[in-house]
Amino acid sequence: MRIRSLMACMAVVAVAAGASASSAAAATFSFDSPVVGEVINDCTGEAFWIDGTAHYKVTDNSTLAGVKSHIEMNLTGVTGTTATGVRYVMSQQSSDTQHADFDPFGSAQITLEQTINLTRQAESGALLTGDDFRLHSVAHLTVTNGVTTAEKTDLRADCR
Predict the structure, then answer these.
(1) Looking at residue 15, what DSSP letter applies?
(2) What is the pLDDT of residues 145-154, one digit of tens each?
(3) CA 26 to CA 57: how far, in whole Å?
(4) Where on the phi/psi map is residue 105: left (φ > 0), alpha (ψ -120 to 50), or beta?
(5) Which residue of 61, 64, 101, 136 has the smallest Cβ count within 10 Å?
(6) Domain range holding 151?
(7) Nearest alpha-carbon partner for 61 in 29, 32, 33, 103
(8) In the chain, how many domains are there?
């Protein structure tokens, strides 16, 4: 997948979220971005080219006192085919929630969650571990009065 295009979209989201930081009202906007690039299924080693759309929804309720934002990203219609003709369907859902006070000893919470599914459409039965790749990741951090009070990371990848 083209990391640069995804990073560019995230930069646009960050700038847009920061632009409404002086506003007291929540601002929500959505936009789409094409997703193209090569992906490798870690379960089979197969490489394929994907093509589809990423849908973004950004909600920002930041004020001069702090940041409250939520960013969601979902892939839809993302498909690909290997050089040998095997078809894949890819889905992804990402969520980024942030709350922070503009105080050096204030509180902050950040939660990032992402799920990726690469579903191989032609089951060969040759793999004992499965040929569909699943990845789920969660990262959370809570800071209270400048001290980390909770922190969690969980990364799970498997072949089904």
Answers:
(1) H
(2) 888 999 999 9
(3) 13
(4) alpha
(5) 64
(6) 3-159
(7) 29
(8) 1
